[in-house]
Amino acid sequence: MLRYLGRRLLLAVPTLLIVSVLVFFLSQLLPGDIGRAVLGPYASRAQVAAFDRQHGFDRPRVGQYVHWLGGFVTGHWGQSVVQQEAVSQLLLTALGHSLQLALYAVILFVPLSILLGLIAGFRAGSLLDQSISVGGTVMSALPDFVVGVLLILVFAVGLEWFPVSAQAAATGGLAVKVSGLFLPALTLTLGLVGYVSRMTRAGTVTALGSPYVRTAVLKGLPRRRVVSAHVLRNSLLPTITVVGTQVGYVVGGLVIVETLYNYPGFGEAMLSAALTHDVTTLETGTLLLAVISIVAVLITDLLYTAFDPRVRRRP
Amino acid sequence: MTAADTTILAADAPTVADAVARGGALPAWRTLVRRPDFVIGAVICLFWVVDAVLWPVLVPFAPADVAPAAANLAPSAAHWLGTDRLGRDVLSRVLAGASSVLEVAPAATAIGLVVGTTIGLVTGYLRGWTDELGMRVVDAMLTLPTIIIAVVAVGLLGRSPLVVTLVIAATFVPLISRTVRSTVLSERERQYVEAARIRGEGMLWILGREVLPNVTGPIVVEGTVRLCYAIFNASALAFLDLGPQDPSPDWGLTVAENRVYIATQWWTVLFPALAIASLIIGINLLANGLRQDPTR
Amino acid sequence: MIDPPVLDVERLSVAYRPGGRLRPVLRDVSLHIRAGETYGLVGESGCGKSTLAMAVMRYLGPTGAVTGGGIRVDGEDVLALDRRALRHWRGARAAAVYQEPGRALNPTMRVGEQVAEVLRYHAHATRAEAEARARDLLGRVSLADPAAIARRWPHELSGGQQQRIVLAMALAGRPRLLILDEPTTGLDVTVEAEVLDVVRDLRNELAGAVLFISHNLALIGESCDRVGVLYAGRLVEEGPVGDVLARPRHPYTAALLGCVPPLGATKHGGQLRPIPGALPAPGSLDGGCPFAPRCDRAGPECVTEAPPLRPIDGGRRVACWRPVDSAPVPISGPAAVPPGPPAAKAVRDELISLRDVTVAYHRTVAAADVDLAIGRGEAVGLVGESGSGKTTLGRALLGLVTPTSGEVWLDGRRLPAALGSRDDATIRRLQMVFQSPDSTLNPRLSVRTTLQRAITRLGGQRTVEELADSVQLSAVQLDQHPDALSGGLKQRVAIARAFAGRPDLVVCDEPVSALDVSVQAGILQLLARLQREQDVAYLFISHDLAVTRYLADRIAVMYRGRLVEVGPAAAVFAPPHHPYTDVLLAAVPAIGRPRRRLPAGATSLSAAMGCPLADRCPLAVPGLCDRDAPPWRQLAPGHQVRCHLDAGGLAERQVPGVTRQLAT
Predict the structure, then answer these.
(1) Which end of chain C has less neighbouring CB within 10 Å, N or C?
(2) What is the 3-state secondary structure (H, E, C) of C413-426?
């Protein structure tokens, strides 16, 4: 097990390196001079030059890359070029907010998806199954802000059960968070339920049609035993993987939801960094996101190997 | 690919793996027109496509016409969908908004498909170091959510339709090439491909005549899914103020501009949102119709 | 009052209903099995034998339904059982074992628990009791070290072990009826022998009845007391197994027996008589005898009315208006094919050879130190069980696999190892026919396109029509796509494709293994004819000894990646020969010859040094065979074995009639 973990970590390193190169390259795409882009067209040339020198933008590109990457790894993330704050402060508070929202969403969507997927799988081919499948697919294809807008119209404006904005929830106590973050979490959930429940459904259908379930039934086992010991154990395997990868994705994909609900999360921070050309924040933030993604996938993989004996103990 | 990936590919039955198992065959036209989901989807999509081209003829008012006297009117006989804060007719703006998303999304999908398929075909067939390198890069790109990549890229490069199109296309390439590659991986083991190699056929023939025809099914399915996400991303970028600017009637932009008024002038937000929803649902239904088992 | 039969099927009809239309799969089938009896049900694909098994277990699925007749087990009406009763009935009164044991076991549950489950839910045993009894059962199916095996996961076990676990599960409830549906298909012949021995032993303990379903007549012949022959959903013949196989009365049974090459038959003897026509698609026939279109005795009454199953003398039943008379079927019948040149062919020049070839992947060695030469126009058979490396060798010849070391020589010149480095002229001379007819043709291309392309690319001088004609494909079939063709026809197209450029060597990799018996015969005859007409050499790879013997002039035997014997076909098949060959031949079921027993053997890892067979060989010499690699010894000109024992030593130990077996 440990060797597997080690091997996977090792494989993650080149991926991260490539991401860092891509991210750096992307940020260098800014047309023209960085200092000019940040300070605007009215700053003097001297000011721009000073700015560049201060932040090291006048050094050769490769040097900048190495310096940045080294800083990232050692925890020295530098200052935002636009805001008067340390990048770490900026990003980590925002990350904290996003993680809370993500957690809320996960608590909502995971049980719901599994339940819907199982229902759809056991009743495969029926109208209920088709509705769940089509409904789920449609929901996940709709942009978050569309779903969010509709939810807001119904629950916040119409019924007034929840607040329209989640801004207060960032700093408020638990009760404020629970009510303020409900709609954003629900918006996210509706987008994620479709895909995950489809995976669960597919896993269930496969398990139900498999020869080993036939064996179990023909052994004369009671239905609840067949379902619990033979169907569920196997049908939920793909779900584990999918939930894991979705969680990794969710943290960054929150940008739309955060903007819609005015929630100061990670996605929102990245958006304003992009709009204001805050290069340092942008680079570090993107790489951080990649790290989180990879860690989530790694944890998922480990969980998976813990549950599926076929993958364990590879020679 | 991780241990779990193979299970996902196998488990994602309703979409790609299913089409692969069917050997890339698409249902015949005759069966398609009998399916309600395909027909409804086709009608919706056709409506919006026609509208995107003909909206100057269809709109009751000019979408950019400001009329302060008629500001913030609820839906009525004169203005079916109401007016916004500047007195502009919402219906006209909704009808005109189709062109902004439809000029970006299909092109982005097409470019993404072509580039992604080519990469997928070549890396899947050749294996070796091109495959390893290609897949590392793909994996790297896939660690980041597409919306963030789009946000960062457009934020830095500018928001013209061309940039948006190319950026969205670029975010599709990794996923498409991965899907195509995995299909090619299973196809290349087929005995008729080996028979072709034994005949001395070159790579071009094998990819073009033996592999590609059997892969078109999954590609089309994937293509329709990508189209939905292209619309998703294009309107999301507009929503985040990274797309067309005011006074464009773009749907995403309109939702963003008017959402502060959602409590009072709900019609300015609802209808553009529904327009987006209808287009996406239309494509989904169309795709559903294409995707189903042709023998049922 | 005699006891009712354990299984009593009375005029059973079953149909499937996919998408609206009704497709009858079984019609009016009646049979019964008494306690202590093993009844074999034989038929080819689509005949409905598996459907019968499913119907008895009431597991037809949502699209299948019993449309008539009844099923009783021990007098109890199975079709009338409600859900609760059915659940109690399954496992306790009737149990089933299917093929592909690996897939029949839950991959996420330890095998011991899967066996114990049956005891907990049927016998209401406590957990501890159930576990103990499960271990006991594992021992009874001859699994060594049951306690350790019980804790294993299914994927950690070999095919033979898995099937024994499935058997243990089936027997745990002490059922009165045991159904075995192709239980050994896909298993190596030596493993098959072990599994069947276990079944035979346990049968004597069971008071109940066994229904044994298979497509393999020889297997049924040696395992069953009575046999029933199914064709297109109808039972056409039934009777004591020895009698039916020696003196078939139904034309189909007789024809089927004529299709199976008896062990020892060769292409020169003309004993294979393929059945013209094709198997009917399930559910496609109505009215009239289902076999009439292909029967050479059919008359007008056969087409209009289906004959009922009627008893005839000797406890037999036949459904035929014109049954075959009761003279025994001659083993070497009138030749349908003119006899070819004398069996012993003169040794020709070498065409192609593998010299000292080793193929190794990361940790596994697929083939090691192989020297094999094929002469012009010579058919060399390569036999071995799974993991023997025979497919790898064929692929190495063609360049699909690059040997780790060693060379391939053609016409006295060294060939580049990889296919991509070979020139067109060489490529045209070496072709291949693959195993699975379903993936051997590109489903998007019509037959004509496929063949035309082959002709263009391989430089053939013939037209597509001529090529199709040479493999007996009709003009109509040329314009069809593969999905409209049966397995046998697809394989003919594949053969035509390989022969398009008049190759010098065709590697045939299990070309008939996936085909029904009646279709196999036609393909084998085709291959034999093409060889004669075009003087082409074959490397015929197969696990089926009888089929290989039919086509091959020389035979090479492989075990775990090493060649252990090479020689003329007749010499290899008779002692003295390599001990492994001896065991293989003993394990093969053959009609009219009782098989010798093999005890259960655990698969152990092959020794890196010494003879790979050292730990299982009945003639092994301790201290020698497990330490030193055996040398090649010549038993006769052209006949070599790799063994420490010399010709004399082998001859004196391989006395015919004395049991020899592979050890545990």
Answers:
(1) N
(2) EEECCCHHHCCHHH
